[in-house]
């Protein structure tokens, strides 16, 4: 963001503390949509964050997608507010490959409250995934970032709730991710305070991913992590 977004240091150093809205987003999108596009909405900012309740930008965006469908339109969110637009999702899904990638980070509510105190509870997220599934919306359980959890319990719940691939990704640390955004200092402090520091160790993370992958493989399910895993979201058939 600091390189491409034209932000000043005092802006990007406070990433996550404020939100700005491109109020003409739907109009800009409608003019730029092309049939061969694959669109990921969004790797940086949750389109169904709480402020969307009042801003209501996504309905116009989904209308634009239905009117001039790209090849693929993926929505990445952890917000149950996505259910507000379920009829628009259905409408767009009739014209394009539309997929909701819904993030669940742990099976432990105490961990969720510590890391994500302003986000929906774990059970509410699973209910949202199941509601999307029952409405015939293509939904993927994205276990990212993986927070302290019981890995087998988490992936087993994901496999019960969905039929597509399972995507996972650990907390990013600079030792593994050489460029781009990584886990912020606050998460390191939380892990240290609660005795969860191993969840930031690349070797430990690899073991968790391997454990999840074994469980998925034994169940005959597609499993992916990292950029390759997220690339599965663009595939029409699994």
List keywords for this structure.
238 residues, pyruvate-formate lyase- activating enzyme, 6-stranded parallel beta sheet, single chain, alpha/beta
Overview of the molecule:
The protein has 238 residues and is an alpha/beta fold. It has a single domain, classed as pyruvate-formate lyase- activating enzyme, CATH 3.80.30. 41% of the residues lie in helices and 14% in strands. It has eleven helices and six strands. It has a six-stranded parallel sheet. It starts with 8 loop residues before the first helix and ends in a 7-residue tail after the last helix. The mean pLDDT is 92.
Helices and strands in order, then pairings?
Layout: H1 9-12, H2 25-32, E1 38-41, H3 52-55, H4 58-67, E2 72-77, H5 86-93, E3 97-103, H6 109-115, H7 122-134, E4 138-146, H8 151-161, E5 166-170, H9 185-194, H10 202-218, E6 223-225, H11 226-231
Parallel strand pairs: 1-2, 2-3, 3-4, 4-5, 5-6
Helix pairs in contact: 2-4, 4-5, 8-10
Strand content: 5-15%
- The strand order across the widest sheet is 1-2-3-4-5-6
* DSSP, total strands: 6
Gyration radius over CA:
18 Å
Task: Give a short synopsis of this structure.
This protein is of the alpha/beta class.
């Amino acid at each position: 963001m600091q390189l491409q977004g034209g932000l000043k240091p005092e802006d990007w150093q406070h990433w996550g503390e404020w939100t700005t809205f491109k109020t003409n987003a739907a109009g800009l999108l409608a003019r730029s949509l092309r049939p061969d596009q694959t669109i990921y909405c969004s790797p940086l900012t949750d389109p169904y964050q709480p402020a969307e309740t009042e801003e209501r930008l996504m309905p116009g965006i989904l209308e634009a997608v239905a009117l001039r469908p790209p090849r693929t339109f993926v929505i990445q969110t952890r917000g149950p507010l996505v259910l507000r637009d379920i009829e628009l999702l259905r409408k767009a899904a009739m014209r394009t490959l539309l997929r909701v990638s819904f993030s669940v980070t742990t099976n432990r509510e105490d961990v969720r409250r510590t890391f994500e105190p302003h986000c929906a509870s774990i059970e509410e997220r699973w209910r949202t995934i199941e509601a999307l599934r029952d409405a015939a919306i293509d939904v993927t359980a994205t276990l990212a970032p993986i927070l302290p959890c019981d890995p087998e319990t988490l992936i087993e719940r994901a496999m019960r709730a969905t039929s597509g691939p399972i995507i996972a990704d650990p907390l990013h640390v600079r030792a593994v991710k050489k460029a781009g955004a990584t886990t912020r200092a606050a998460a390191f402090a939380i892990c240290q305070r609660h005795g969860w520091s191993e969840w930031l160790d690349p070797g430990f993370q690899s073991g968790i991913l391997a454990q999840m992958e074994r469980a998925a493989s034994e169940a005959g399910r597609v499993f992916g992590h990292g950029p390759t895993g997220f690339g599965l979201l663009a595939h029409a058939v699994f």
